[in-house]
Write a structure and sequence with these properties.
By secondary structure, the protein is mainly alpha-helical. The protein has a domain of 72 residues: Hydrophobic Seed Protein, CATH 1.10.110. Helix content is 63%, strand content 0%. It is built from six helices and no strands. This is Bifunctional inhibitor/plant lipid transfer protein/seed storage helical domain-containing protein. InterPro entries: Bifun_inhib/LTP/seed_sf, Bifunc_inhib/LTP/seed_store, DIR1-like, NsLTP-like.
Length: 103
């Protein structure tokens, strides 16, 4: 039983580390710099009204369908970037980009 618990704990740590490494280098063709450019408009506290031109340019090059798969991983976005996922999912529309219909 203890061995199974230790294995489960190790797997959890590995998953968190893999997610951390992926987020550090960007995700879905959205670089870390692009995520940081969008952070003020999707911030948990005191967000700006509109995304910056740099944010919109980063989103224009991102794989929005891929980003949709991360919308349920709010904890990762909050932990690493202090982003409110609901605000973040609204940014493409504010940049004149269409989100995939199934997002």
């Amino acid at each position: 039983m203890a061995k199974a618990e230790a294995t489960a704990a190790l797997l959890t740590v590995l998953v968190v580390l893999a997610a951390s490494a992926e987020m550090a280098h960007g995700v879905c063709n959205l670089s870390s710099a692009g995520i940081r450019a969008c952070q003020p408009a999707a911030a948990i506290r005191n967000p700006t009204d509109q995304p910056s031109a740099e944010c919109c340019a980063a989103l224009a090059g991102a794989d929005l369908a891929c980003l949709c798969r991360y919308k349920n991983a709010a904890g990762v976005w909050v932990r690493f970037y202090r982003i409110d996922i609901n605000r973040a999912m609204g940014l493409p529309g504010k940049c004149g980009l269409a989100m995939p219909a199934n997002c």
